Amino acid sequence: MKQKVKDLLHILVIYLIALFAAILTLKYTPIANILWKTALADFIAMVIVFVFSLRHKNSSVYDPFWSAAPVFIVIYWLFNSGQTDFYYKIIWVVILIWGTRLTWNWILRWDGFEDEDWRYIKIKKKTGKYYWPVSFLAIHLLPTALVFAGLVPLFYAFNSTETSPTSWFTVSAVFITMVAIYLEKTADDTLRQHIKSGNSSTELLQKGFWGVMKYPNYAGEVGFWWGIYAMSIVVDFSLWWTIFGPASITLLFVFVSIPMMKKRLANKTYK
Questions:
Q1: Per-residue pLDDT at 168
Q2: What is the mean pLDDT of each run of 10 residues along the chain (271 residues)?
Q3: Alpha helices in 1-85 (DSSP H)
Q4: Cα–Cα–Cα angle for 207, 190, 208, nearest 5°?
């Protein structure tokens, strides 16, 4: 346990370095377009995290980036936009709840630098000496780009000239997003308890949401990004074209994450 605490503190230092580099990029890069400037800062932070993944020979160093980066990106966009309406603050609070919850879930499951996500280990075995270029592109860069794309609707919503919404559409959008967060949290908690019990290798999880749907944790995550999209377009329906954000993340889960999980479960023998 003491080693895990040390490793988590090490992760914190890594992410503080990445955050500092992102802040310097935002401050000194001569790019007028805030969206592209943020994209560059996000990329620089990701590269720094990748360097430490390489140093520790563990791509799971990157895992918290998925949930941590959006919290800082969105608050930067919000302040830069000058929006003061309470609705926009609610959006950031929702992002904060999601990011904090997902990061905390990772902290509870990660056992230190000796622990690496099973998917990365599988990719490492397949790619051999080409693993680290593949890790940079597929494990670090691709998710970073997709999450950024998922946030793009918010950027345009924050900078919209439309009057902030106060209708039931607003309430519905926030509600959908919070339900998705709750679904993912409950599913993750149940899964973590199942793994901790030591029965994950011999018993198929059928408790809670796992008993009524497949991959409720994935469903909750995908639902969250569609919720972000919904909270954005209720501000300005002309932003419908930013649908590429949640759609891209959905495709990631449908064609990559779920197939890998199906194959993993198929290789297990249950009583």
A1: 83
A2: 92 98 97 97 98 98 98 97 91 97 96 95 96 98 98 96 76 96 96 81 80 93 98 94 98 95 74 43
A3: 2-28, 34-56, 65-81
A4: 30
- Assess if residue 142 is contained within a domain: yes
- Kindly provide the b/e burial profile for residues 93-102, where b requires at least 16 CB atoms within 10 angstroms of the residue's own CB: ebbebbbeeb
**In whole angstroms, what is the distance from residue 156 CA to residue 256 CA?**
29
The count of structural domains within the chain is 1
- Shortest CA distance to 102 belongs to which of 64, 139, 58? 64
Distances (CA, A) of 66 to 29, 35, 233: 24, 18, 23
**Environment class of 172 (CB within 10 Å of its CB; exposed 0-12, middle 13-18, buried 19+):** middle
The separation between CA 28 and the C-alpha centre of its own chain, rounded to angstroms, equals 27
CB atoms < 10 A from the CB of 37, how many? 18
Q: Please give the helix or strand (H or E) that residue 185 lies within, else none.
A: helix 168-196
Q: What is the DSSP letter of 174?
A: H
* 64, 45 contact by CB (below 8 A): no
DSSP conformation class of 162: S
Quick one: tokens of 90?
Answer: 């609610």
> 145 CB contacts (<8 Å, ≥6 apart)?
none
Instruction: Write out the residue range of the structural domain in which residue 252 sits.
Output: 2-266
152 lies in some domain: yes
Assigned domain for 271 exists: no
Whether residue 170 lies inside any domain: the answer is yes
Give the CB-side neighbour count of residue 120, counting CA atoms within 13 A: 21
